[in-house]
Structures are given as structure tokens and as C-alpha cells.
Design a protein that fits this description.
By secondary structure, this protein is of the alpha/beta class. The protein has ten helices and twelve strands. A seven-stranded parallel sheet has the order 8-7-6-11-9-12-10, sandwiched between helices. A five-stranded mixed sheet has the order 1-4-3-5-2, sandwiched between helices.
Length: 272
Amino acid sequence: MKVERIQTRNAAFQKFEVLKTNRNKRFRYQEFFVEGVRNLTQAVRNGWSIVSFLYTDERELSRWARDLLAVVETEVNHVLPASLLAELSGKEDTSELLAVVRMREDDLSQLRFSANPFLALFDRPSNHGNLGTVIRSCDALGVEALILTGHSVDPYDPAVVVASMGSFFQVPVVRVAESEAVQEFLDGMKAKYPRFQTVGTTAHEATPISLVDFTRPTLILIGNETDGLSKAYKDACDVLATIPMGAEASASSLNVACAATVVFYEALRQRS
């Protein structure tokens, strides 16, 4: 395994920094920055391509870290002083192993579904934590893939990956900028699965989620945190569903990640 030692804030170190902080540079390199035991374990387990591991030899590595370094094929690994590794780590207690991981292609045609697909679409998410939480809920509640539309937060941002608690590497997340491409995908799904339905979510008066038949092949559409679903996606829905609030509640709606989790749970409950 090729190993390079970095002693200063050289060009290689600066690349690691921009992978953490610069969306445009991430997509130029088609690589992103990952840390955390759960995230790295899931990345390896789900066959993501690890470009590099970063670590220091100034402290003894755990058995877990040594095993990854020994087993996982990378292009090159980097040994850094503990002080430089701490600068790259997003944790107060520096992670012993950081990684640069290759992005996957955004291609709806590559998605593979069960005989009764259960999918989700998040329209223009604007908050890293919400997106990470929605990805985690997709993983926990059986959603087979998540489509991101329009100009959204970067799913490869470290804040999203960390918030997903490893689920980012389990659930296929596909970015689709054009609504026409989404509509083409929906037309294809309806042709392949005649009972396929699109269920939009809204905070306004609509069909209570308990009355929606989620046992059918389903795509659940989640709206932007501030503006909800765009008109194009509302018009594409077969039904609009809402989560009824308690009779005495002062809240008129839930945080989008909380709401998505409730809807996913109701769908899983019916399907179980």
C-alpha cells in the first residue's frame, strides 16, 4: 500500500481542507471527506471507493483502524503529525482515522428497487442537519432511495454525512437538477409499476396520512423547509397528505425532518 508522509500544510493538505469546506472543489475532484467510526465502517461495508486514509503514527491505532488500513485498497494513504490531523478533524477528540472517498454518479437509471418500491424525494433541502436526518430516517424505515431536486444543500458536505450517522452510505441519494428528468423517471415508474403513486406532503389541510394507502408502490415527496413543495411537484402528486396536529396543539406543523420521519413510519407500519 502506498503511503505518503505530510509534514506541513502543503498542497495535499490544502486539498483535504477544501474537500471539507468547498462544495465546488468537492465536485471538481469528485471526492469528499469522511470521518467517524460508523461512517467509515458503513462506507467500506457498502462498497464505496476509498481514495485515501489519513492518520498519525504519533499514537497507537485501534484494532479497528489497523484492520481497515490492512484490508481496504486505496490509491494512497497519508501519515500526518497529530497537530495537522486535529486541524482536519471536525471533532473535539480527533478521530484516529479520516478518509477521502470517491463520489458516486447521480444516475436514476442505476437505481434498483424491490417488487413494491418505497422511495422519497426531497425538494430543495436547505439545511444540512435536516437532510442528514431524513437520510437516516430513510435507512431506518425502509425507504429504498432518496432523490434530491433543484439547488439544494450538498449531500456530500461533512455536516450532512455526520448527521446521517452512517446511513448516507446505505441509502442511495441521487441529485437531479431538472424537474423534467424527475418527471421522466416518474413516467417510467408508472409504466413499470401500474399502481405506483406519488404522495406529496403538506402542512395545509389535506388527506390525513393514516388514510393514504402506502402499501402500493410509492414515492413520498417532501418540500423545502420554508416554501414546501414547488408547484411543479405538487401538480405531479396523485394525493397530498398531511400529519394532523393534536386538538390542543399550538404548533401548526412539524420540522421537515420530523414530519418526513412520521410519514415514513406510517408507510412502514402499513407495509408491515
